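User: Here's a chain of 192 residues. Predict its fold as tokens.
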Amino acid sequence: SQCSAGLFCWKHGCGTVRDFWPSKFIIRILVGGASKTISSPGSLLYGERDFYGIRKMMSIIFRYTYVVVVAVAVVLFLIPGQFLQFFGMDTSVPGTHLVTAFRLMLFSLPVFWMNDLLAIYYPCVQKQKLSVLLFALQNLVFKILILLPCVAAANLGLGRMPAVALWCLLVEALSLTVTLLWEKVKYGRVSI
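Assistant: Prediction complete.
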């Protein structure tokens, strides 16, 4: 998966993907501390069977972190050129679609963050299989399944960088959707 994904990104817009990762790291820096609090209190509350407490804790964490995630995404959406130039990308080159692709990738930030929170949350409430499912879908299954249609879209005129951006967005969104649907089927409810 990583090899095929890397080849696609290298041929079709590696600069866009490379410059999108710093925005993910910004998110992890700004709200990463909140996600780390899930493990200890979440496990403690689960051990005491305080499901109301777990839901309340996750509600607070989701609200706090999503305000920050949306604020970062909006700022980066409004000033993508300056952000990309900070990382050495020339946004003035005509026909590259760099800014468009970067803005498209920004839509995957909230979904990416939800995936991160759930990957930490599931093990602390004894749902490790859901965490593994999310990881496998995100890093293997959908990267490969969505790769070929995105390559076709890039070759049919969508543009290479927007195709890479769309690929990233779809991988994050579909991984989250399938995991939440599986959780609903298996446990009768969704954690979030």
